[in-house]
Each structure stands twice: as structure tokens, then as C-alpha cells.
Write a structure and sequence with these properties.
Elements lengths: L5 H5 L4 H16 L14 E3 L11 H7 L3 E3 L8 E7 L7 E2 L2 E2 H18 L4 E7 L2 E8 L2 H12 L14 H4 L6 E7 L7 H11 L3 E8 L1 H5 L7 E3 L6 E3 L2 H25 L3 E6 L4 H16 L1
Parallel strand pairs: 3-6, 3-8, 8-9, 9-12
Antiparallel strand pairs: 1-2, 4-5, 6-7, 10-11
Helix pairs in contact: 2-4, 2-10, 4-5
Length: about 290
């Protein structure tokens, strides 16, 4: 099994099994890395070495991966993890064999599985046209399976959720939450940035995973000369060969502006290309986040 290829994970139709496979790959690659901070929180897992105190073996991790891990430090946390999924029409953008929403649901499932394994409550918001789906945060495997079901049921269409539907955000749990937003950051005006302002105003820690297709990054659409906006239906003609340099310069400026906007709002940001393995994306991000928090 080639775990460096995202197609490996997306070919697994059972979302629970895919999540476990991603997390097992993440944990295997983690080894001596140290991840700290509220939500998804632990001090260190490492491989068992002869002479280690057997009291610190993590038997649940053994049951999932058939490998022995020592959990070096237990850290208590009562911060729930809330996954936010952009289900607007632009998330139907396809690169190769799969769409952004496919990558989003598998990445979210892995994060939920990891959080639940750490003892964190997990919840879900799905931002879809005409409303906001809300699954309250809980910590047990029955709830985790319910969350997987709702991830599998997501249908993308239309524009991003309008602020009038945000009432559940304001009336939810009073506990501080770690909010992980998986989105392509496509917005007509500033609706997603405005949402981030709302989320950070509630004193939650916010992480944004920004999904982009490799074909978007390189303006490589395999001979197509007309592109369609998946939310508005508007079309534009392109000549990729003559426009690529100008496009990539504009994209670079756009991404730089996004990073600045995230930094200004104290939002953790990472752009993920969909040809990147989910477990590697997760590992790189958590290591980066740990360095920032050190």
C-alpha cells in the first residue's frame, strides 16, 4: 500500500477504516515528534523500547495499529474539537479522480478519529447553501460513527452559508473549542473572512486547512479552454499556455494576502494541495503548530 499517494486513502470506501489508516500512518511517521496544545493534545508517543515501564503502554493504540507505543505524558483537556466543512459548490472542484469535498471529508474523519482517541469531544458544522448543519460535540465511538455518517452524507451545492444562519455558532457550547475549518476559501466578497472574524471573536482557537487542486496551482486543465464557476455558473475562456505566468503571479499574490489575513486574526493556516497525502499534511501541520506554540 502506497501511503504517500492520497488515492490510497480515498480508494477506501469505509470512512472509519480510512480515518484509522490515515491516523496509523500519521502515528508511525510521528515517532519522536512532540505535539502539544489544547485539543488533539498529547505530549509524546514513541515506539516501545525494551526496558520501558509497561504501565505506560497505550493498549488502545496497539489495538488499532498492532504496534507498541509508549505514551510519555498524559495531559488532561476539556477543550472540544469542532470540525467545520465548507460544502458550497466550489468544493465540487475536481483534480484527477476526486473532488475537494472528498479530500475534506477524509481529512476531517482522520482529525475526528485522532481527537476521539485522545479523549477530546468532537463536533461538526457543515456550511451549506441555505443553512448550517450542527452536530454537538461528544466523546465516544458511537458519536464518532454518527459524525462519520454525516461527513459521508455531505452534498455540495450553491453559495456559502449566509450569516443569518449562524445562530447555532452563538448559542452552542460555552466551552472553549478548537475549530478546524476545511475549505477552499472561495468567496464572492468576504463572507469566509467575516465568518473567521465571528469565530475568533468567540475566543476560540481556529485552524484553517485551505484545499487547492494541483490543476489550480499550475493552471493545468488538460486542454479545457472554458472554465465554469461552480457556485454561480459563470464561465470564462482561457488560454492556459499564454496566461499561465500571469495567473501564477496573481495566485501567489492572492495566497500571500490570505496568509496575512490569517496572521492578522491569529488563525493557524495551512494550504494543502490535493496531491498531498492526508497523513503527511496532518503530521507537517501539527509539527509546525507545535513549533509556533513552543
Amino acid at each position: 500500500m502506497n501511503l504517500s499517494d492520497p488515492k490510497t486513502f480515498l480508494a477506501i470506501k469505509d470512512l472509519s477504516l480510512a480515518a484509522r489508516t490515515i491516523v496509523d500512518g500519521f502515528m508511525t511517521g510521528l515517532n519522536k515528534s512532540s505535539i502539544k496544545g489544547p485539543g488533539l493534545e498529547f505530549s509524546q508517543y514513541r515506539s516501545y523500547q525494551p526496558g520501558d515501564d509497561l504501565r505506560w503502554l497505550d493498549w488502545k493504540m496497539y489495538g488499532r495499529s498492532d504496534r507498541y507505543y509508549i505514551r510519555e505524558s498524559e495531559v488532561e483537556t476539556n477543550i472540544s474539537v469542532r470540525l467545520l466543512i465548507d460544502a458550497s459548490g466550489s468544493m465540487a472542484h475536481q483534480d484527477g479522480e476526486y473532488k475537494k469535498i472528498d479530500y475534506a471529508r477524509y481529512l476531517a474523519a482522520a482529525l475526528a478519529y485522532l481527537a476521539n482517541s485522545q479523549g477530546d469531544a468532537t463536533g461538526l458544522y457543515v456550511f451549506q447553501e441555505g443553512g448550517l448543519f450542527n452536530l454537538a460535540s461528544r466523546q465516544d465511538f458511537q458519536h464518532l460513527n454518527r459524525l462519520f455518517f454525516h461527513l459521508e452524507s455531505i452534498k455540495v451545492k450553491g453559495e456559502f452559508t449566509k450569516p443569518v444562519n449562524y445562530k447555532d455558532i452563538y448559542t452552542g457550547s460555552r466551552k472553549k473549542e478548537l475549530l478546524i475549518f476545511i475549505t477552499d476559501l472561495y468567496q464572492k466578497k468576504s463572507e469566509i473572512i467575516d465568518l473567521l472574524d465571528t469565530l475568533t471573536a468567540l475566543k476560540n482557537e481556529v485552524i484553517v486547512f485551505h484545499l487547492m487542486g494541483r490543476n489550480e496551482l499550475e493552471l493545468d486543465f488538460k486542454g479545457y479552454s472554458v472554465l465554469e464557476d461552480l457556485e454561480t455558473g459563470e464561465t470564462v475562456k482561457i488560454d492556459a499556455a499564454s496566461s499561465r505566468k500571469q495567473y501564477q503571479e496573481a495566485l501567489s499574490a492572492h495566497l500571500s494576502s490570505l496568509r496575512t489575513e490569517m496572521l492578522d486574526r491569529h488563525v493557524h493556516y495551512r494550504m494543502i494541495s490535493m496531491d498531498e497525502s492526508p497523513d503527511q499534511a496532518l503530521r507537517d501541520f501539527l509539527n509546525q503548530r507545535n513549533k509556533l506554540r513552543a
